[in-house]
Amino acid sequence: MNNHEIDYKLYGDDMQFVEVELDPQETVIAEAGSLMMMDEHIRMETIFGDGSDNQNGFIGKLIGAGKRVITGESLFITTFTNDGIGKKHVSFASPYPGKIIPMDLSEIEGKLICQKDAFLAAAKGVSVGIEFQKRIGTGFFGGEGFIMQKLEGDGMAFIHAGGTIHHKVLEAGEALKVDTGCLVAMTGNVDYNIEYIGGIKTALFGGEGLFFATLKGPGTVWIQSLPFSRLASRIFAAAPERGGSKGEGSIAGGLFDILGGDRK
Q1: Contact between 162 and 225 (Cβ < 8 Å)
Q2: 3-state DSSP call for residue 143?
């Protein structure tokens, strides 16, 4: 076992957080900004890379940090270490409505491929890198497809996703077509490609985008019902334009007043 062995507990339903229990000198790594609360005597430190064994030395750490930048994440990652006596707890919160999915990497052959913004936290020793898909079409049209995060190790990792999560096991040769934004994660043995929907009317008026992901087994995939990009676009589309109707009795109208808007 190369990774720290951590225990955890999930709280909540639609806005979850995960509480990680650390023995003395155990460490958990997490994305910047995901901390919710922590006990006394837990030391927080910002580091290059992910702190895994394959990033020893400055060059290794710099390469690891560079990989995170490619996936759109920060150069740095935060570690939380129990420097006290006895068990301590640190909690991390999901950034938007959805679920936190605990993953024991030792049970899925030590590798998980996930959306670039899905990673939340993991036991120290888990490597957080990038996964390049083989097919160039995936890179040009996949959106979240070509460059995805790769979690490797034999410890616990936690990823988050929006809405309801569907866990599906694909048999050998079994295929599943998924909206690219709805794909959360997959095991390393799943074959992944991007396909054109086809048909100009479908492309222009279908409202589902031009491309979808085709996943072929064997392997396991995790699908989310509400990608954050879809939620954000609906909120943006519903937001009233400045200077337009405020809606005297609406919540939006009240917020407009609070933010300094003028009533007409």
Answers
A1: yes
A2: coil
Q: Which of 152, 148, 114, 119 is nearest to 131 (CA)?
A: 148
CA dist., res. 253 & res. 249, Å (int)? 7
Provide the whole-model pTM: 0.78
Facing residues of 152 across strands? Answer: 111, 127
Q: How many domains does one find in the chain?
A: 1
CATH code at position 71: 3.60.160.10
Cis peptide upstream of residue 218 (ω within 30 degrees of 0): yes
Q: Is 254 part of any domain? A: no
User: At which residue do the structure tokens 């049970």 appear?
Assistant: 107
The residues with which 119 forms a beta bridge, in sequence order, are: 159
**What DSSP state is assigned to residue 170?**
E
Per-residue CA distances from 8 to 25, 48, 124 (Å): 16, 25, 14
Place of tokens 């939380």: 80
Q: What is the pLDDT of residues 57-99, one digit of tens each?
A: 555 555 555 555 555 555 678 999 999 999 999 999 988 888 9
pLDDT tens column, 18-56:
999 999 999 999 988 899 999 999 999 988 766 665 555
The 3-state DSSP class for residue 107 equals helix
* 76 in any annotated domain: yes
Residue 24 lies in a domain: yes
Q: Decide the pairing of beta strands 165-170 and 27-30.
A: unpaired
Which residues constitute the domain of residue 211? 7-226
Strands 127-132, 165-170: pairing kind = unpaired
